[in-house]
Design a protein that fits this description.
The chain has helices at 44-51, 74-80, 97-103, 111-124, 126-130, 141-153, 171-186, 198-203, 222-227, 229-235; strands at residues 4-15, 18-29, 33-38, 59-64, 67-68, 82-85, 159-163, 190-194, 207-212, 215-220. A 6-stranded mixed sheet has the order 6-7-8-3-9-10, with helices on both faces. It has a 4-stranded antiparallel sheet with strand order 2-1-4-5, covered by helices on one side. Helices cover 37% and strands 27% of the residues. The structure holds adenosine-5'-triphosphate.
């Protein structure tokens, strides 16, 4: 039997008078990869930012690991085991790669574990290890994406939320990120993925949800959605 690590019920989020998320409900099962797909402006990023405590919902509940997240501040949410690798990377360009990774562990005090996880990030992304003392701003876009993912992993999350990790990446880099997601799942990390590349994301997802103008309009396993005619037309570029 599977259990929900994250349960979102009737979530609503607004920017002033504009409601960007209009009462969505979905679950992320423990140990799964779950993907939100949808057109630009559908509300995917808004959803992730709300889950990590950066935006306040106007209604609805979020339960993470059996605990309601309402009224828990963003930094506390990280310490509960929910990490977010945001869209657009948000690394600190003047700090070194290693300093950026260490920031991801800011709530931890277990120095040996932190050292171990830094080495794990370098094994996952060897380029980061090679350039560890270099300013992060000198990395290519794809390498910065890897750094953002590596940094989110430094909090040893139970749930890793990745917002468009393949954005702006070459096909080879994208494959590497997707393979890393599969590896992370195998190592026990639950993943909530937001992706424009629906084909790649759904192929490795246990479950997917399709968002359209703030609502969830369709759900199914990754394979079911890949076969769905409306998904194929709207998101996979088929006629
Ligand atoms: P994309 O795939 O383009 O990143 P998305 O599904 O992540 O899209 P969101 O970024 O969540 O969509 O945006 C949802 C809606 O909320 C859009 O209509 C957007 O214009 C609006 N929105 C997002 N951020 C703000 C903001 N800070 N202030 C006002 N409106 C916003």
């Amino acid at each position: 039997m599977t259990t929900a690590l994250l349960e979102v019920t009737d979530l609503r989020v607004a920017y002033g008078k504009i409601e960007a998320v209009k009462g969505i409900s979905f679950t992320v099962e423990d140990g799964s990869v779950t993907t939100l797909i949808g057109t630009n402006g559908a509300g995917k990023t808004t959803t992730l930012r709300t889950l990590s405590g950066l935006l306040k919902p106007t209604a609805g509940t979020v339960t993470f690991d059996g605990r309601p997240l309402a009224a828990i501040p963003a930094h506390k949410i990280v310490s509960l085991g929910l990490a977010h690798s945001p869209e657009g990377r948000h690394i600190f360009p003047r700090m070194t790669i290693e300093e950026n990774l260490l920031l991801g562990a800011f709530l931890r005090r277990d120095t040996p574990g932190i050292t171990e996880d830094i080495e794990r990030a370098y094994t996952l992304f060897p380029i980061l290890g090679e350039r560890r003392k270099q300013a992060a701003g000198t990395l290519s876009g794809g390498e910065q994406q890897m750094l953002a993912m590596g940094r989110a992993l430094m909090s040893r999350p139970k749930l890793l939320m990745l917002d468009e990790p393949s954005m702006g990446l070459s096909p080879i880099m994208m494959q590497k990120i997707m393979a890393t997601i599969v590896d992370l799942k195998a190592a026990g990390t639950t993943i909530l993925l937001v992706e424009q590349n629906a084909q790649a994301a759904l192929s490795l997802s246990d479950r997917g949800y399709v968002m359209q103008t703030g609502a969830i309009v369709l759900t199914g396993t990754g394979q079911e959605l890949l076969r769905d005619e409306s998904v194929r037309k709207s998101y996979l570029g088929e006629d």
